[in-house]
């Protein structure tokens, strides 16, 4: 998905003829799904630099899956002005990429005999409530948790906490994308896509003006 360009052309807010054929689009940075997917990307790059051999296929696979999660959201947002179908398809691809990334983290934990947190693990909600906005903030949280857990029985390794933290963030991003896809589908069914919009506007322009009585 992306980083084609951070600049996306948009139609004027007040078109000279009242309505715009191509509606405003490209505002992906305001999407919660993009913000969370980008955080997953940054966290994954940091994780792979520290715990995954750069020469391994897994390293490239995880980074590319995380990057694809953000890229497809951006490209979908850029295409939304003229194709809701493409926007939905790319958003769904972003969701699939995060699912692939989730499996990679689960494999990392399983193959090393490390514990994967259950859904009832209190640290999951603790991380969500922390509302981290950068990979550095997530890393600080991981270090704080390790120190705290180290004083009470088994002391987990850094990569165990970091991988589980990434899984939590991926779950949040995936949930946001699921909601976004549901909203896109609803609007598409109710309002149609670009073709329907173009047809409606052509009919409006072709209709003769009504004479006031």
Domains (count)? 1
Number of DSSP E strands: 0
For the CA atoms, what is the radius of gyration?
Answer: 22 Å
The CATH fourth-level homologous superfamily: 23S rRNA-intervening sequence
CATH architecture: Up-down Bundle
CATH class: Mainly Alpha
String of helices and strands: HHHHHHH
Would you give an account of this structure?
It contains 7 helices and no strands. With about 210 residues, it is mainly alpha-helical. It has a single domain, classed as de novo design (two linked rop proteins), CATH 1.20.1440. The relative contact order is 0.14.
What are the main properties of this structure?
single chain; disordered N terminus; 213 residues; mainly alpha
Topology:
Elements: H1 32-51, H2 57-79, H3 84-111, H4 122-130, H5 135-149, H6 158-191, H7 194-206
Q: What's this, in brief?
A:
By secondary structure, the chain is mainly α.
